[in-house]
Design brief:
single chain, about 75% helix, mainly alpha
Length: about 250
């Protein structure tokens, strides 16, 4: 149970970093008291992950362990690519969050419940519960998500809406790809030494990263493209300011 708890906590915490529901948590933290938002997130996450572990537990009972390991590896690779692609709030979701007028707890609870259904953290929880102790997965995945969204609430309440999203997104995607590659290699080559499997998994992720960097800029994921440079206004180039005076550039 402890191993399932620790694994689930780590995986879901990583999955939630930079996710759409984390952005929702930050927006709600700008409107409501932090403890109301955190309480509603905890309740919604607990409910969704009960469903997730139930699906994963009964699915796991019907499938052989070897096949489950391969499926889990493929899913983690999928999570890595999904994370690399990025996740943004649509205009409709942002507007719905900003205009909500119902009691705060129920607004946040319903928003998170709907946002999590079918989200990658729910899929990750199902995958973990299929091959690990379901109680440990349920507790670990719930706490992992609550802690990750708690960080978003702190940022939203203290530092505004901006996260170092680029670094978080790349790191989370790399870890998911690494987990996926390791699990696939472990199940396809069960007799290989752990150190060899880990080294090959790291090499695969490095090759994938190099391949993505080698693509033309327009074909790369947005997070791997160079950050746009803000254009310099002509007035700034010659030191002229808007009131007609001039200042020497330092």
């Amino acid at each position: 149970m402890l191993a399932a708890f620790l694994l689930s906590f780590a995986v879901i915490f990583i999955a939630e970093m930079g996710d759409k529901t984390q952005l929702v948590a930050m927006m709600f933290a700008l409107r409501y008291r932090w403890w109301v938002v955190l309480g509603a997130i905890t309740a919604a996450t607990t409910a969704v992950h009960v469903l997730s572990v139930a699906i994963g537990h009964y699915l796991g009972a019907a499938l052989p362990t070897h096949l489950l390991g391969i499926i889990a590896g493929v899913m983690f690779v999928f999570f890595g690519l999904w994370t690399l692609r990025g996740d943004k709030l649509s205009d409709e979701e942002a507007s719905r969050t900003e205009k909500a007028t119902a009691p705060a707890f129920f607004v946040v609870f319903s928003a998170f419940l709907l946002a999590e259904l079918g989200d990658k953290t729910m899929l990750a929880t199902i995958t973990l519960a299929a091959d690990h102790d379901w109680v440990g997965v349920w507790i670990g995945s719930t706490l992992g998500m609550v802690v990750a969204d708690g960080l978003a609430i702190v940022v939203g309440a203290v530092a505004g809406k901006h996260l170092p999203e680029r670094i978080i997104q790349i790191a989370a995607a790399a870890l998911f790809l690494l987990f996926g590659a390791y699990m696939l290699l472990e199940n396809f080559f069960p007799t290989a030494p752990v150190a060899v499997i880990a080294a090959v998994a790291i090499a695969i992720v490095a090759v994938v990263a190099a391949g993505l960097r080698a693509l033309p800029e327009r074909l790369r994921p947005a997070v791997l493209r160079p950050e746009p440079v803000a254009p310099v206004a002509p007035a700034e180039l010659d030191g002229t300011v808007t009131d007609g005076s001039t200042q020497p550039r330092i």
